[in-house]
Amino acid sequence: MSKRSFPALIAAGALVAMTGCAPTITVEAGPYATEPICAQVVLSLPKTVLDQQRVKASGQTTAAWGESGAAITFTCGVEPPSPTTQDCQSITVDVFGIPEVFDWISTETETGWTFTSYGREPAMQVQIPRSLEASQPTGALVDVASAVAYVEATHACL
Length: 158
Known about the structure:
By secondary structure, this protein is an alpha+beta fold. It has one domain. It has three helices and eight strands, in the order ααββββββββα.
Protein backbone atom coordinates (compact mmCIF):
# COMPACT_ATOMS: atom_id res chain seq x y z
CA MET A 1 0.00 0.00 0.00
CA SER A 2 1.34 3.43 -0.90
CA LYS A 3 1.81 6.16 1.69
CA ARG A 4 -0.86 8.29 -0.04
CA SER A 5 -3.59 5.63 0.06
CA PHE A 6 -3.21 4.92 3.79
CA PRO A 7 -4.69 8.30 4.97
CA ALA A 8 -7.53 7.88 2.47
CA LEU A 9 -8.22 4.41 3.85
CA ILE A 10 -8.31 5.76 7.42
CA ALA A 11 -10.66 8.59 6.39
CA ALA A 12 -12.98 6.15 4.62
CA GLY A 13 -13.00 3.88 7.67
CA ALA A 14 -13.82 6.79 9.95
CA LEU A 15 -16.69 7.83 7.68
CA VAL A 16 -18.15 4.32 7.73
CA ALA A 17 -17.81 4.17 11.52
CA MET A 18 -19.53 7.53 11.98
CA THR A 19 -22.45 6.78 9.66
CA GLY A 20 -22.94 3.34 11.18
CA CYS A 21 -23.47 4.79 14.65
CA ALA A 22 -27.08 5.69 15.31
CA PRO A 23 -27.72 8.06 18.20
CA THR A 24 -28.98 6.67 21.48
CA ILE A 25 -32.47 7.88 22.37
CA THR A 26 -32.79 8.86 26.03
CA VAL A 27 -35.62 6.90 27.64
CA GLU A 28 -35.98 6.84 31.41
CA ALA A 29 -36.38 3.38 32.93
CA GLY A 30 -39.57 2.67 34.85
CA PRO A 31 -39.56 2.00 38.61
CA TYR A 32 -40.20 -1.72 37.96
CA ALA A 33 -37.72 -2.13 35.10
CA THR A 34 -36.01 -4.99 36.91
CA GLU A 35 -39.07 -7.25 36.64
CA PRO A 36 -37.70 -10.34 34.83
CA ILE A 37 -40.55 -10.46 32.30
CA CYS A 38 -39.61 -6.96 31.09
CA ALA A 39 -36.39 -8.31 29.57
CA GLN A 40 -38.36 -10.87 27.56
CA VAL A 41 -40.85 -8.23 26.44
CA VAL A 42 -38.15 -5.82 25.24
CA LEU A 43 -36.22 -8.57 23.46
CA SER A 44 -39.44 -9.53 21.63
CA LEU A 45 -40.25 -6.02 20.38
CA PRO A 46 -40.30 -5.56 16.59
CA LYS A 47 -37.60 -3.97 14.45
CA THR A 48 -40.11 -1.42 13.15
CA VAL A 49 -43.02 0.46 14.72
CA LEU A 50 -45.17 2.75 12.56
CA ASP A 51 -42.57 2.22 9.81
CA GLN A 52 -39.82 3.63 12.06
CA GLN A 53 -36.62 1.59 12.49
CA ARG A 54 -35.56 0.48 15.96
CA VAL A 55 -32.64 2.42 17.44
CA LYS A 56 -30.71 2.18 20.68
CA ALA A 57 -32.46 3.38 23.86
CA SER A 58 -30.65 4.38 27.05
CA GLY A 59 -32.83 3.01 29.86
CA GLN A 60 -33.07 -0.52 31.19
CA THR A 61 -35.98 -2.41 29.55
CA THR A 62 -36.76 0.44 27.18
CA ALA A 63 -36.83 0.66 23.38
CA ALA A 64 -37.06 3.36 20.72
CA TRP A 65 -37.85 3.68 17.04
CA GLY A 66 -37.11 6.66 14.81
CA GLU A 67 -34.83 9.64 15.33
CA SER A 68 -34.01 11.93 18.19
CA GLY A 69 -36.77 14.49 18.63
CA ALA A 70 -39.33 12.30 16.86
CA ALA A 71 -38.81 8.87 18.40
CA ILE A 72 -41.47 6.42 19.48
CA THR A 73 -40.50 5.04 22.90
CA PHE A 74 -41.46 1.95 24.88
CA THR A 75 -40.88 1.44 28.60
CA CYS A 76 -41.58 -1.76 30.51
CA GLY A 77 -41.99 -1.52 34.27
CA VAL A 78 -43.85 1.76 34.61
CA GLU A 79 -46.23 2.46 37.49
CA PRO A 80 -49.44 0.49 36.82
CA PRO A 81 -52.47 2.74 36.44
CA SER A 82 -55.15 2.41 39.09
CA PRO A 83 -58.80 2.06 38.06
CA THR A 84 -59.73 5.24 36.26
CA THR A 85 -62.36 6.91 34.15
CA GLN A 86 -59.65 8.16 31.77
CA ASP A 87 -59.87 7.15 28.13
CA CYS A 88 -59.31 3.38 28.12
CA GLN A 89 -58.99 1.86 24.68
CA SER A 90 -59.38 -1.86 24.02
CA ILE A 91 -57.57 -3.14 20.95
CA THR A 92 -57.94 -6.72 19.72
CA VAL A 93 -54.90 -8.10 17.92
CA ASP A 94 -54.17 -11.60 16.62
CA VAL A 95 -51.11 -12.82 18.50
CA PHE A 96 -49.73 -16.06 17.12
CA GLY A 97 -53.13 -16.68 15.48
CA ILE A 98 -55.18 -16.09 18.64
CA PRO A 99 -57.23 -12.89 19.15
CA GLU A 100 -56.11 -11.12 22.32
CA VAL A 101 -57.47 -7.92 23.88
CA PHE A 102 -55.04 -5.22 24.96
CA ASP A 103 -56.28 -2.36 27.14
CA TRP A 104 -54.48 0.98 27.10
CA ILE A 105 -55.08 4.19 29.04
CA SER A 106 -54.47 6.99 26.56
CA THR A 107 -53.44 10.56 27.20
CA GLU A 108 -53.05 13.17 24.49
CA THR A 109 -51.02 16.33 25.03
CA GLU A 110 -49.66 19.04 22.77
CA THR A 111 -46.45 17.00 22.39
CA GLY A 112 -48.05 13.65 21.52
CA TRP A 113 -49.77 10.56 22.84
CA THR A 114 -48.96 8.35 25.81
CA PHE A 115 -50.49 4.89 26.08
CA THR A 116 -50.10 2.95 29.35
CA SER A 117 -51.12 -0.69 29.47
CA TYR A 118 -54.02 -1.41 31.80
CA GLY A 119 -54.51 -4.72 33.60
CA ARG A 120 -50.98 -6.08 33.01
CA GLU A 121 -48.22 -5.97 35.60
CA PRO A 122 -45.60 -4.85 35.10
CA ALA A 123 -47.26 -2.07 33.16
CA MET A 124 -45.83 -0.83 29.88
CA GLN A 125 -45.91 2.58 28.22
CA VAL A 126 -45.71 3.65 24.58
CA GLN A 127 -45.12 7.31 23.69
CA ILE A 128 -45.68 8.67 20.19
CA PRO A 129 -44.53 12.25 19.52
CA ARG A 130 -46.82 14.56 17.59
CA SER A 131 -43.79 15.58 15.49
CA LEU A 132 -43.92 12.12 13.91
CA GLU A 133 -47.24 13.14 12.34
CA ALA A 134 -48.68 9.64 12.75
CA SER A 135 -52.15 9.52 11.23
CA GLN A 136 -53.06 6.53 13.42
CA PRO A 137 -50.91 6.55 16.59
CA THR A 138 -52.70 3.46 17.95
CA GLY A 139 -51.03 1.52 15.14
CA ALA A 140 -47.94 1.46 17.36
CA LEU A 141 -49.93 -0.56 19.91
CA VAL A 142 -50.72 -3.15 17.27
CA ASP A 143 -47.04 -3.29 16.30
CA VAL A 144 -45.88 -4.04 19.87
CA ALA A 145 -48.78 -6.36 20.79
CA SER A 146 -46.97 -9.68 20.35
CA ALA A 147 -44.28 -8.56 22.82
CA VAL A 148 -46.78 -7.05 25.30
CA ALA A 149 -48.67 -10.38 25.25
CA TYR A 150 -45.87 -11.96 27.31
CA VAL A 151 -47.34 -10.13 30.32
CA GLU A 152 -50.65 -11.74 31.25
CA ALA A 153 -53.75 -9.57 31.43
CA THR A 154 -55.40 -9.80 34.85
CA HIS A 155 -57.85 -6.87 34.59
CA ALA A 156 -59.77 -5.22 31.77
CA CYS A 157 -61.27 -1.85 30.96
CA LEU A 158 -64.90 -1.49 31.96
